[in-house]
TrEMBL record:
Signal sequence coordinates: none
Residue stretches making up the Methyltransferase type domain: 64-172
Descriptive protein name: Arsenosugar biosynthesis arsenite methyltransferase ArsM
Keyword Heme listed: no
């Protein structure tokens, strides 16, 4: 039995008997006017953040949701994309697809606007998405890809890249680890399935996304997820896991490397009205300009007297240039 089989078995069990609080973090649930989330869907919230960012959904996209769980986020996406087949949700675990179908039927009773036909539930897995090349605007996955071993994560990211249209978006929420998780925990299939021991570090995770071809990554939020305490997990020191919400774009990787936005800004501190770095950035005096980390490092290095670079806020939702 492989670790993927163990994960499928684990999710079969929690589809049949919901396990409240399995992955979720303490955060304000996404409240949307006119949306009622059935209680059973909330119990089966097995995500570690959110992938539903309204600003990404204004153009009536076709959404492919990988690892449907109890259907909560499929319902939230359907809230924005109200047409038959707008949301395609994939899961290899029959019991999970059946639970999601039941939950979506309940949602239809509680939400007059919702038709279960807005969500198409399909058998499939992250390595073989049952849709053609370049056919999807938004792919989302919440707390699934962290379960995969690194080479499988790369396969899953490459498969997402295949199905996205040019310019399409991969929206993810996954745990990341403050430092590498020791091998004795990484080898524990049950902890891995529970999203507790497969997490990569931030750098490893973002580099895998870039290596799959994504030219821009935006960090929407980063917050504490779980503590692996040294007593329970046999560690020399406690290890904090954080949940990272990102949006990655299928755009070309610039010659000088991918752009990662973490909320840094550059501020011109000089006495002129503005500052032009001749690299595409014009900074009005005293006004923060959102920049990617690569540009932030370059400006700080080249103009330490003229430009202040602010720390990452770990929140960025568009508007930067680099
Ligand atoms: C941690 S749960 C997350 C569920 C959902 N995204 C949520 O936020 O509640 C992982 C989900 O991925 C599914 N899954 C497990 N292995 C998978 C695979 N190889 N490909 C796609 N989905 C998988 C599980 O059945 C489960 O529904």
């Amino acid at each position: 039995m492989t670790y993927l089989d163990s994960a499928a078995q684990f999710y079969r069990d929690v589809a049949i008997t919901p396990e409240v609080g399995l992955c979720c973090v303490q955060s304000t649930p996404l409240r949307l006017p006119g949306l009622t989330i059935p209680a059973v869907m909330q119990e089966m919230n097995y995500g570690c953040g959110t992938t539903v960012h309204p600003a990404e959904l204004g153009k009536d996209p076709t959404v492919l949701y990988v690892g449907v769980g109890g259907g909560l986020e499929a319902l939230q996406f359907a809230y924005f994309c109200r047409r038959p087949g707008a949301v395609i949700a994939v899961d290899p675990v029959a019991a999970m697809r059946e639970a999601a179908a039941r939950n979506l039927a309940i949602a239809a009773q509680e939400n007059p606007w919702f038709d279960p036909g807005f969500v198409t539930l399909l058998t499939g897995d992250a390595f073989n998405l049952p849709v053609p090349d370049a056919s999807i605007d938004v792919v989302a996955q919440n707390c699934l890809f962290n379960i995969f071993e690194p080479e499988d994560l790369t396969r899953a990211l490459q498969e997402v890249y295949r199905v996205l249209k040019p310019g399409g978006r991969l929206i993810m929420s996954d745990p990341i680890a403050r430092r590498p998780i020791p091998e004795h925990l990484r080898q524990d299939d049950r902890l891995r399935a529970m999203c507790l021991s497969g997490a990569l570090t931030y750098d490893q995770y973002t580099q895998r996304i870039i290596r799959a071809g994504f030219g821009q990554i935006e960090v929407r939020t980063k917050r504490p997820y779980r503590l692996l305490d040294r007593h329970t997990y046999g560690l020399e020191e406690n290890l904090l896991l954080e949940s990272l919400d990102t949006v990655s774009f299928k755009v070309a990787i610039p010659a000088d490397g991918a752009c990662i936005f973490t909320g840094k800004t550059a501020i011109y501190m000089g006495t002129e009205n503005s500052f032009d770095d001749r690299g595409g950035h014009i900074l009005a005096q005293g006004v923060p300009l959102a920049v990617c980390d690569k540009t932030a490092a370059k400006l700080a290095r080249e103009y330490p007297e003229q430009i202040m670079v602010t720390e990452a806020t770990w929140h960025y939702d568009g508007g930067g240039c680099c």
